């Protein structure tokens, strides 16, 4: 699957890789970042809305992506839970589904073995380094470019907004967070229902990342 066809959670996972060192960064928080990306992706597709501070599933159409469909199904059959709860709790299945999707598309390789012959451990390696670099360059252009925020594709604006809130320094450095604070505010402040959902997600994602790093 070409990188431009990837959903937000898949793109965020790829963006977390330092392609020079072939190393995944933000390992303590990547599951939460990917889950937030999945929530935002469902909103962009019109399948998820905000209902009094909680995500609610609207149209029950299949996306064809297990990470998204399984999350939508889980939200639909679970008791109402605030956005923060869905970002904090049970993120591993979404992360696993995203990794498997990227592996099937050839972006990653997954090697599972048993530690001590008992505990299963999966080693993840980035295969398509060029695709990861291209995705990062595009995200940086979205952040630093002069094109008005309202003129950018929704998914590009959401991607950079989530990457910044999720602390993905491979895309938005600490210096960028300050230098482009107005640009980031404009990207996050886009109009429409999907970005209303995104505005609900962002403070919860930032808090989750800050707590994880403080620990």
From TrEMBL:
Protein name: GPP34 family phosphoprotein
Protein keywords: Golgi apparatus, Lipid-binding, Membrane
InterPro entries for this protein: GPP34-like, GPP34-like_sf
Superkingdom classification of source: Bacteria
Keyword DNA repair: no
Pfam families found in the cross-reference section: GPP34
Subcellular location: Golgi apparatus membrane
Lipid bilayer topology: Peripheral membrane protein
